[in-house]
Amino acid sequence: MAQGVLEIDRVSKRYGEVVALADMTFDVRAGELFGFVGSNGAGKTTTMRIALGVLAADSGEIRWNGAPITFETRRRIGYMPEERGLYPRMKVLDQLVYLAELHGMSTNAAHRSAEDWIGRLGLRDRRHDEVQKLSLGNQQRVQLAAALVHEPDVLVLDEPFSGLDPVAVDVMSQVLREKAATGVPVVFSSHQLDLVERLCDRVGIVRAGRMVACGPVDELRAGGSATLVVDAPLAPPGWADALPGVRASSVTGDRTVLDLAPDADDQVVLRAALGTGPVHEFSRQRPSLTELFRTVVTEESAA
To answer: Which GO terms describe its molecular function (predicted)?
Structure first.
């Protein structure tokens, strides 16, 4: 299974009257970190389970390099579920070797890979411990090792950073960057949007089973509402309210924060600000991924 593109093409899934997915469509490219974000129940886990063959889609197709995914290609996917899928009474090393062998590795190769990932993820002192005796953070590390131990060609991770301390987050982030750098497509869901914004090449925002925004973070942010911060200490209250393209304003001390329409001309605002006296600050800001997510979800909910 060579490097390539994982495609989710118009995948739909219903449970009676409940629509879990409606024409879900996106792709994850070779060497890309793709963030899959949405509220609880939005359809992220359902999409991942269909990609893994755990669930069957009502319609649509999952493809790898343009061809429908088969049992053999699914064996080359590394999957990390949100709920831990480990054997609690099994020792860490034994478990990783067993899982690697299930994916087709020889016993010797499985041992080498398991020991390698145990060391890289800081579990060497816990290699002979039962999983149930580990802290939740270390269990999460073992779960990641289980997704990586067979050297997969695709990584699909559901909330991989949940419950991790900052050091473990850094370790996992570095591992995901390294895997992507080798050409592996990596898709992961997370509610930690600041982390998604920092790590991902592209992001897909899903709501009610539909992809409502998808693209590079900078492009998504550029398409959101711009905010101007203006420090004009002599400006009277409401000085910008009547300006074209200014949708809302708020004041904190001498600083006025303006929410601008997409077609607003910030130079008009600057001239108006200078007309009131000195301007100590005039900065244009784009929304963070968290702010963009709130806006997209709110707008979709109101639609």
So the answer is: ATP binding
CB distance 105 to 117 below 8 Å = no
CB proximity list for 281: less than 8 A, separation 6 or greater: 229, 230, 231, 255
DSSP annotation of 253: T
Q: Are 211 and 60 in contact (CB under 8 A)?
A: no
CB 36 within 8 Å of CB 47: yes
Of the candidates 45, 43, 21, the one whose C-alpha atom is nearest the C-alpha of residue 158 is 45
Rounded to the nearest 5°, which phi and psi values hold at 73?
-70, -35
Q: What are 130's two structure tokens?
A: 């039962």
Helix (H, G, I), strand (E, B) or coil at 40: coil
- Pairing type for strands 281-285 and 33-38 reads unpaired
* pTM value > 0.85: no
Give how far Cα 189 sits from Cα of 197, 212, 223, Å. 12, 15, 22
In order along the chain (303 residues), what is the average pLDDT of each group of 10 residues? 81 94 96 94 93 93 92 90 86 96 94 96 94 91 94 93 87 93 94 92 94 89 79 92 87 86 88 95 85 73 48
User: CA 206 to CA 48: how far, in whole Å?
Assistant: 13
- What structural domains does the chain harbor? 6-216 (3.40.50.300), 225-285 (3.30.70)
| Best CA proximity match to 20, nearest among 54, 44, 2 | 44
- The DSSP symbol for 236 reads P
